[in-house]
Amino acid sequence: METMSQTTPTRVVMKETIPLINKPQRSMFSGCCTVWRKWFAPRELKSRTVHIGSRYQVFDKQKNQVKNEIRNQKYNVITFLPLVLFEQFRFFLNLYFLVMALSQFIPDVRIGYLYTYWGPLGFVLTVTIFREAIDDFRRFQRDREMNSQKYRRLTQSGHLEMVPSSKLKVGDIIIVEKDQRVPADLVLLRTSDKSGAVFVRTDQLDGETDWKLRLAVPATQKLQSDAELLNMEASIYIERPQRDIHSFIGTFSRQEGSEEESLDLQNTLWANTVVAAGSAVGIVVYTGSETRSVMNNSQPRSKIGLLDMEINGLTKVLFCAVIGLAFVMMCMKGFSGPWYRYMFRFVLLFSYIIPISLRVNLDMGKAFYSWQMQNDPEIQGTVVRSTTIPEELGRISYLLSDKTGTLTQNEMVFKKIHLGTVAYSNDSFELVASTIQSLSANINNDQSESTTKSVFGTNVMRRPEGWRVWEAVKALALCHNVTPVYEENDSASIAKSVSVEIQTERTYQASSPDEIALVKWSEQVGLALYDRDLTSITLQLTGVVRSSDNASILTETTDVSTNSSLSHEKFLKFQILQIFPFTSESKRMGIIVQDTSSGEITFYLKGADVVMQTIVQYNDWLSEESGNMAREGLRTLVVAKKTLTPEQYHDFESKYSAARLSITDRLQRVQTVVESLEREMELLCLTGVEDRLQDQVRPTLELIRNAGVKIWMLTGDKLETATCIAKSSHLVGRNQGLHVLKSVQTRTDAHLELNQFRRKQDCALVVSGESLEICLQYYQYEFMELATNAPAVVCCRCSPTQKAEVVRLIQKHTGKRTCAVGDGGNDVSMIQQSDAGIGIEGREGKQASLAGDFSIPQFKYIAKLLVLHGRRSYKRSAQLSQFVIHRGLIITTMQAIFSAVFYMSSVSVYQGFLMVGYATIYTMFPVFSLVLDQDINEKVALRFPELYKDLAKGRSLSYKTFFMWVLISICQGGVIMYGALVLFEDEFIHIVAISFTALILTELIMVALTIRTWHRLMVVAELFSLGIYIISLFIFKQYFDWEFIWTYDFLIKVAMITAVSCVPLYILKFLRQKCSPPSYVKLS
C-alpha cells in the first residue's frame, strides 16, 4: 500500500506535465482566431425555460441578451463611408478613373489640370454618398419610431411601468392593448375576455388579413388579477427559435407538481402581429433577431441593374483597347529611355475612351425616368424609391406576385348554394329567405318541445317541405369559428328605443373570410349568429320585412323592434361540445353541438370537395357541381351533418380525450378517433364563394402574359384557394391545363410527381410549400427546369423565406430578370431579393411599400410600369450610354492619329478647357436630350405588348451594337483628324480650330440622326449648344485664330469634313429603314 501511494502521485504528475510542454507551441495567431470565433460566430439557438414569478425574473433577464430592436439600416457610422465607396469602386469605370485621377499628383505623368479628372469623379461620388446617406437616415428614422413605441410592463413590485419596445427582454410580462403592435414573441397568459380568447391580425407576418383566434394559458387566465402572476411558481419550456410561423412547441408547468399543459401556436402572439380586440398579457419568450418575423426577413441588399453590369463589361473591353493602343504607340516610338513613363502618359491621353461622364449621364437619366413615372397622371401615387434601377422594369422575364391583397381584395362574397335538387344564386336568395321565414313561423307557433321536434325531426319520412334549406342554412350558421361583435351601447340604445326602429350593426371576427361570407349570408336569409363564446352559440331568427305588394323580401338584423311588420323573433341556443379546426392536411373543419332545448347532438362538417366526397353518403351530383363552380372561379365548400345519440357521443368523447393525452403519436391518434365519426354523413349542400379580385386584374395579367413575362403566384394561403384565384384571375390561360403536384414526403414521391408533370404539355403547375422544399432538396435542377418552362406556377403555403428562395433560384437557374410584387410584411424578403421589387400600399400596411424599389397603389399600374416606362427607361439608357461611349471613342481616335503623325508625341491635341468643354457644355445638353426620345408612343406600347418580348434579349445594348458604334467612331474620328491635317496650311492652331469645330458639329448631327421622335426641348438643346460654341470661338482666343475663323476658307473646310463624316451614315440609316425596318416602325 505504501508503494502504491508513492507511485500514484508520480503518474499523475507525468500526465499533468504533458499539456505544460505543449502550451508554448500555441501561436498568437491561433489565439486571435479563437477570440474572433467567439466574438463573431453566429449565435447558437437553443431551447430554454422561462420562469414566471418575481423571484425568477432577474435570473431570466440575465440570460438571452438579444436586443429587441428592429434594424433595417444598411450601414452604421463606422461602416458607412467604406461600404459606400466599396460599392462604387466595384464598378470598373469608377476604379479606373480613380487610378487616373491619383496619377495626376505625379508631376512626371501629369498631362492636364487636376480638375479635369477629379471634378467629374468627385461629382459622381458626392451625389452617391449623399443619396445613400439620405436613404439610410430615413431607414434609421423609421426604425427609431418602431423601437421607441411604449408598452406597459409588470414590475417585480406588481406595478406597471412604461418601457420602449427596444428595452424588452426575455421573461418580461407586458400588456398589449387593442390595435397595438406586438413588440416581441409572446406566450399569451391572460386576456381581457373572461374566456381567455383574443383575436390578432397577422397580415404583416403571413400576408393573410383574416383575424386569428389566440387562447391564453388556462392556468394563468383563471387568476383574479395580473399582479398574481408574480406570485406564481411556474415555468414555460419553449423550443429553440425557428422560422416556421405556423407551429410552436411548449410546455407550461407549475412548481408544485401539478399536471403539465402543452402549448401550441394558439397560445402565442408573434412579433409584428396586432391585437384586434381587447387587450392581452403575455410573457416575452423571443426577442430581436430570434423572433419569427425577423428570422423570416432577409437583409436589404444593394441592387445593381443588368444594364450597369453590361456597361461595366464594356468598359473593361475599352480599357483593354486603351492598353493595346498605348502599347502600339510605344512599339512605334521604341522602348528607349523611361519608356514606362511614356507608356503611362499614352494611357492617360487615351483615357477619354472610357468617359467618366457616362456615369453622370446615366444617373441623371435614371433620375429623370423616375420623375416621369412618379408624375404620370394615369398611375398616380407611384413612388420610385430606388432611382438606380428603373431600366430593370424593361427587361423582366418573370413576375412573382403575392395573392392576398395583391391580386385579390380579400373580400368574400357568397354567390351560390346547391342542395342537390335545386340551386340558389343571387337572383333567387329571396326564395331561401321566404322558406326560412315560413319554417320559423312554425317554431314560433308550436310552443311545446315535442311539436318542435316533430317539425324538425330526423325521420326522413316526416320532414316538411323546405327542411333541406333549413338544415343547410342552420349548418352554415353553426359550423364555423366566427364571433359576432357589437358596437358599444348598441344594446342599451335599442332597449331604450320605443317608437323608432333601429338597425344594429353586427361585425364578425374570424380566422377566415370564407366563414364570414357564409355567416353573413345566413344572416341575410333570416338566421343570424347572435352570440358566441367558447362553450355556446346563440342563433337568432331575424324578422322579415315584406313590402306592401309582397313582391320582395328584405331581412332585418334588429335585436328588438317595435315595427309591426316584423314577426316575433326566436333565439336558438346550442352548447359547443367539440371543435375540430381546419388544417391544411385535413382540409376540413368540424363542430359538435347540442341543442339546449331538445338535447339533440349534431356533428357538422364542412371541407373541400376532394376530401368530403369519401365522407358523405353516396350521391350523383356533388362531383359534377363542384367542378362547375370551380370553373366559375368560386371557392367551394361541402357541408354535411350527422346526428349522434348521447351514448355515441360519450363513447367518442372518452376515446378523444385519451388520444389527446397520449405522449407518442398524439396527432395520428386524435385524427384516427375523429375519422371514426366521419363516416356516412348526410350531405346537406355545396356552397360557392367568390374572392373579389383587384380592379382590372384579369386584363393586366393577360397583357403581361402577352408581353412574354411568365407569372408565378407565391402565397401563404391554402392550395384550394390559390387554385381558384389562379383560374378566376386568368393567371392560367383559358386553353392551359392545371397540374397539382401531390403531397411529396420522400425522394421517391418527388421523382414520380416530377416525371408525371414532365409528360404534361402547356400545363400550369400548382405546388405546396412542403412539397416544394422536398423537390428542391433532392431534384433542384430538374424541378427548376420544369417550373421555369411552365406557362404559370402557383406556390401555396409558402413562408416568407421560401418566397425569397424561389426568386433566388429563378435568378440562378435562368439568369433572367425577376420582378416581385406584394403588399404585406411577409412579402418583404421576396421584394428585396428580386431584381425589381414593387410594393403595393394597401390594407396590409406600408411595410412592403417601403421595402420595394417601386411603390404603387394598385396592381393594374404594373402593366404600364413595365410595358411603357420600363421599355422607355431601358431603350433610352442603352442609347444614351452608347452615344456617350461614341463621344469618347471619336476624340480618342483623333488623339491617336495626332500622336502618330507628330512623331509619337504624348501631347494632348486639345488643351485645357477644350477637353472639359467637349464633354460638358458643348455636347452635354443634346446628348442628354436623348432621354426624351421614344421609339413608339404610349398607345402602341399598350396595344401591342408583344413588342416587350424583344427587350429581354438585350439587343439594344450588346457587343454587336457596341462594335458598330466603335466602327462609326473610328471612321468619323479618322475623317475629321486626317481632313484637318490635309486641309490646314501653315499654323498648328488652324488644325485645332478646324478639327474641333468639325467634331462638335459631327456630334450635334449624330444626335439628330439618332433621334426617332423629336421633342421641342431637343431642338432647344441643339441650338443652345451650337450657340454656346459659336460664342466660345470669340472668347477663347488662345485656342482659336480670331482672323482665320472669319474666313470662307475655314467654313468650307469645316463643312467638307463634317459632310464626309456624317452623310454616309445618313444614307445607310435611310436604306435600313426602307429595306429592313424594325417591327415597331411597321406598327407605328
From TrEMBL:
Q: How does it sit in the membrane?
A: Multi-pass membrane protein
Spell out the SUPFAM superfamilies in the cross-references.
Calcium ATPase, transduction domain A, Calcium ATPase, transmembrane domain M, HAD-like, Metal cation-transporting ATPase, ATP-binding domain N
The biological process GO terms on file are:
endocytosis; phospholipid translocation; retrograde vesicle-mediated transport, Golgi to endoplasmic reticulum
Domain P-type ATPase A span(s) in chain numbering:
149-292
What is the annotated localization of this protein? Endomembrane system; Membrane
Top-rank lineage group of the source organism? Eukaryota
* Catalytic residues (UniProt): D402
Name the family: Belongs to the cation transport ATPase (P-type) (TC 3.A.3) family. Type IV subfamily.
Name of the featured protein: Phospholipid-transporting ATPase
Question: What lineage is this protein's organism placed in?
Answer: Eukaryota, Metazoa, Ecdysozoa, Arthropoda, Hexapoda
